[in-house]
Specification:
Elements (H helix, E strand, L loop, with lengths): L11 E5 L4 E5 L14 E3 L2 E5 L8 E5 L4 E5 L23 E5 L2 E7 L5 E6 L8 E7 L9 E5 L5 E4 L4 E4 L6 E4 L24 H14 L3
Antiparallel strand pairs: 1-2, 3-4, 4-5, 5-6, 7-8, 8-9, 9-10, 11-12, 12-13, 13-14
């Protein structure tokens, strides 16, 4: 039909560090992932938040089974006029993040603040709950919670600075940079780990060679 938008198919390949090859898996389910947006890793799966015109759901890719799944967003975020709550309309599409090892949606409301929604039980749509609001004026973007301390303070990145934020009373303290010339940056949690891309047989052979090299 004239004027009909053709369906987009995105071919997907995964790289095996064990075999050193690329392998084609099923096409991306949901049209196409947002350009320039990395998948959010939670529960052994990568996740992408689709825009409203692409269905508005969250698409997951299980890295073990190499299969796709769908997760629904909170009801008010699936409407054309995306709302974080009853009274506020969002300035941007909700942003998918991981916070406290759970899937989260960050919603920037019309006053420049950010609402943090968390899926408390993975895969259960009804478990989406608004956890707290980041009441830091950030009209140019979304404030991201990175981690929470034992005393309840949250480390927040606004894109131009980091702050220690108290969600109970909205008080916050700026964390200064060593390099004061930084204007825009991207911060993210980092967990040190080491995963050897070898099979059990290969790891056993490596360990055997190490034993042989030890001085007697």
């Amino acid at each position: 039909m004239d004027g009909e938008v053709p369906k987009v198919k995105v071919k997907v390949k995964v790289y095996s560090t064990k075999k050193g090859i690329w392998k084609r898996i099923g096409d991306f389910q949901g049209g196409y992932p947002p350009l320039g947006v990395d998948g959010t890793f939670v529960n052994g799966k990568l996740h992408w938040s689709l825009e409203a015109e692409a269905g508005g759901d969250i698409v997951s890719l299980d890295l073990t089974t190499e299969t796709y799944g769908r997760i629904e967003k909170p009801e008010q975020m699936k409407k054309p006029e995306i709302k974080c709550d009853e009274d506020s309309e969002s300035l941007f599409e909700p942003v998918l993040e991981v916070y406290q090892e759970k899937l989260c949606l960050l919603c920037s409301v019309d006053n420049g603040h950010t609402d943090v929604w968390m899926m408390e039980i993975y895969g259960v749509t009804e478990s989406w709950k608004m956890q707290f609001a980041i009441l830091i004026n950030n009209p140019g973007g979304i404030s991201r919670p990175l981690c929470r301390s034992e005393d309840g303070e949250v480390l927040v990145s606004t894109g131009t600075k980091s702050v220690r934020y108290n969600p109970d009373n909205a008080a916050y303290v700026d964390i200064p940079f060593r390099d004061q010339n930084i204007e825009v940056y991207h911060a993210f949690p980092y967990t040190q780990s080491l995963v050897l891309p070898y099979s059990k047989e290969e790891k056993d052979a490596i360990e055997q060679r190490r034993r042989c090299k030890k001085p007697r």
